[in-house]
């Protein structure tokens, strides 16, 4: 979604801002702009389209001493140059970038119009620039502090004023802002990616805080002027992780990276001697863990699918009632918090508004909530009572791939920990840990089918609708495969339990609506084969993802992609890979923008 970057220091600002915006591209956006302080005034340049379109109208030689930049994902007002950020006041001396939504902007706008302010855009953001103008009497930090008292909604904002050439002022309420600290220069951004090539020293701003930034330092205070001291943290992501390397797209790179990212998520967390899991960040004693009577996993999109897979595993192996809930629905359902229930909120970005608000609602009601996040220092990671970082490294492609398998790793290790505290034997625990350690090898085998899947995508590029069908623990994997396909190829796809098709979806079957079946050699294999036959009998094309050597499935299916034989609960890790690759190659076939699909954002920070 929208991205912010700001710079003040001794280097020319415009080039640094453009580079920062380029690194925010992955979040999804429809327009972009920068405002740079020069000796003669603020220079605003903004444009709909991609960063390359913006670059084309910015002077090639970097200029200006400080500045702010923004990638916009339209909420209030259409996708136009005027509505792109930064927005300025009437005098053109004040400039603002904003992530989030100002809910009372109409009332504020009416008041400002009555005072004679002239608006140039349809956005909610522009009211902030005019409000600061209205309040400013020489102290920008104070003016921003007064301004935010009038704002209702969520925001991360950064403001600059021509009269204060070395100052940026930021404020946060519900939308992340992070400071980047370097020698004689400072950065501010909504996401560390924007500044990772310049500094790894960061300071996280909390809601209700204002930050004043000059090249020499920063001051944090709250909305009531109380000074706050905050440590500087080191980000451990490597700069190379933000580059595509030899891959054509970030998504393909991230699919192939999974054999390493699952390993990172396991490192130090599987105890072979005790045949159990170890997750230091849970902040719970063994007896507290033993008291858990129910686990509820709360998330959105792909993270929700990881939660669904884990709910099967927790019930089967740890014998704890478990379920996964959509964060957006749970929040408004007035959830009943059961005694001894443990909630996990799962989020790659750690900033998803639906998940964050569900977390706050659960905590308000007194629930114990742990987080499973990828982005270190993200809002969800900081607001939970404890949790686990999945360590999958930065996920740049909008479509989530490696985060899904890393989320599974964290939840699988938690399951092992719980199962071993309950009924699971040492031998069974050892076997489970051994299978987890074999993930990189078996995922590598699944990845080796990339060329076959590419051919498959060529063969099926005519189809405009697909069914993805699985059973048991692979049913949520089918849902995830369908989500991947629709996200990046814009082909309609739905994931169903294979058993459910006879209750309705089978009406969709015809020659041009293929069904993609997940057929592991587990206890539901025969049932899935029957469902495949039902589809074939209705002239539906069948693609099967089945186990190496499964001749019966090969005979029924029109096409088959094989995966290695693994134990029942490990199949989600190998079944998802062909589905991710299939979505990728279908999108390539259809000429889609794989890493930045239309209308989507990487981090969905609005409801
Ligand atoms: C799918 C996708 C989204 C996210 C969802 C939750 O490829 O990227 O469905 O999974 O928006 O995002 P996080 O995990 O960041 O909370």
Provide an overview of this structure.
By secondary structure, the protein is α/β, with parallel strands linked by helices. The chain has 20 helices and 27 strands. The strands form five sheets. Strands 3-2-4-1-10-9-11-15 form an eight-stranded antiparallel sheet. A hairpin with a 2-residue loop joins strand 2 and strand 3 (41-48). Helix 9 runs parallel beside helix 13 and helix 13 (402-421) packs antiparallel against helix 14 (426-437). The protein starts with a strand and ends in an 18-residue tail after the last helix. The structure holds fructose -6-phosphate. Fructose -6-phosphate binds next to helix 9 and helix 17. Fructose -6-phosphate (F6R) binds next to helix 9 and helix 17.
Low-confidence stretches: none
- The end-to-end span amounts to 12 Å
The share of residues in extended strands comes to 15-25%
Structural class: alpha/beta
Outline = globular
How many strands appear in the DSSP assignment? 27
Radius of gyration: 25 Å
Oligomer: single chain
Largest beta sheet: strand ordering: 3-2-4-1-10-9-11-15
Mean pLDDT level: 95
Largest sheet: 8 strands, antiparallel
Question: What compounds sit in this structure?
Answer: fructose -6-phosphate
Range of helix content: 25-40%
Helix count equals: 20
């Amino acid at each position: 979604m929208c991205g912010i970057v700001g710079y003040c220091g001794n280097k020319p600002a415009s080039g640094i801002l453009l580079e920062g915006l380029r690194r925010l591209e992955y979040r999804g956006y429809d327009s972009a702009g920068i405002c740079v302080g020069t000796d003669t005034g603020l220079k605003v340049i903004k444009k709909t389209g991609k960063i390359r379109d913006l670059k084309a109208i910015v002077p090639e030689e970097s200029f200006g001493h400080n500045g702010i930049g923004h990638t916009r994902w339209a909420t209030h007002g259409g996708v136009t140059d005027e509505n792109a950020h930064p927005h300025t006041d009437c005098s053109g001396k004040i400039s603002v970038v904003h992530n989030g939504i100002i809910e009372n902007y109409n009332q504020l706008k009416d008041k400002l119009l009555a005072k004679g302010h002239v608006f140039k855009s349809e956005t909610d953001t522009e009211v902030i620039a005019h409000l600061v103008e209205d309040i400013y009497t020489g102290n920008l930090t104070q003016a921003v502090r007064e301004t935010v008292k009038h704002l209702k909604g969520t925001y991360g904002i950064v403001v600059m004023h021509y009269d204060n050439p070395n100052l940026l002022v930021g404020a946060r309420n519900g939308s992340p802002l992070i400071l980047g600290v370097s020698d004689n220069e400072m950065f501010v951004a909504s996401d560390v990616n924007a500044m990772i090539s310049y500094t790894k020293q960061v300071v996280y701003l909390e809601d209700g805080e204002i930050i004043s930034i000059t090249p020499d330092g920063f001051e944090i205070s709250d909305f009531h002027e109380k000074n706050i001291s905050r440590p500087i943290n080191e980000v451990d992501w490597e700069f190379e992780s933000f580059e595509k390397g030899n891959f054509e797209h970030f998504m393909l790179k991230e699919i192939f990276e999974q054999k390493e990212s699952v390993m990172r998520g396991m490192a130090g967390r599987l105890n072979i001697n005790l045949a159990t899991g170890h997750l230091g960040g849970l902040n719970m004693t063994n007896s507290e863990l033993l008291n858990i009577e129910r686990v509820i996993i709360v998330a959105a999109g792909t993270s929700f699918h990881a939660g669904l897979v884990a709910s099967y595993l927790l019930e089967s192996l740890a014998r704890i009632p478990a379920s996964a809930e959509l964060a957006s629905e749970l929040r408004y359902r007035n959830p009943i918090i059961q005694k001894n229930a443990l909630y996990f909120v799962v989020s790659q970005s750690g900033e998803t508004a639906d998940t964050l608000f569900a977390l706050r609602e659960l905590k308000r009601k007194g629930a114990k909530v742990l987080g499973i996040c990828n982005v270190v220092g993200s809002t969800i990671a900081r607001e939970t009572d404890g949790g686990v970082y999945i360590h999958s490294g930065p996920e740049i492609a909008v479509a989530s791939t490696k985060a899904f398998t890393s989320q599974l790793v964290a939840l699988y290790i938690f399951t092992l920990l719980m199962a071993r505290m309950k009924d699971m034997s040492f031998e069974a625990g050892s076997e489970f840990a051994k299978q987890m350690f074999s993930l990189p090898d078996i995922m590598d085998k699944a990845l080796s089918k990339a060329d076959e899947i590419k051919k498959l995508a060529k063969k099926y590029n005519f189809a405009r609708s697909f069914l993805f069908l699985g059973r048991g623990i692979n049913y949520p994997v089918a849902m995830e495969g369908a989500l991947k396909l629709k996200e990046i190829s814009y082909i309609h796809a739905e994931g169903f339990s294979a058993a459910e098709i006879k209750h309705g979806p089978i009406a969709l079957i015809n020659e041009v609506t293929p069904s993609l079946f997940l057929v592991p050699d587990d206890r539901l294999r025969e049932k899935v084969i029957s469902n495949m036959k039902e589809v074939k009998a209705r002239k539906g094309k069948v693609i099967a993802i089945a186990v190496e050597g499964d001749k019966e499935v090969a005979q029924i299916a029109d096409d088959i992609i094989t995966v290695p034989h693994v134990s029942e609960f490990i199949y989600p890790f190998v079944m998802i890979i062909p589905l991710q690759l299939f979505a990728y190659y279908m999108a390539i076939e259809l000429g889609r923008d794989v890493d930045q699909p239309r209308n989507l954002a990487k981090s969905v920070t609005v409801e």
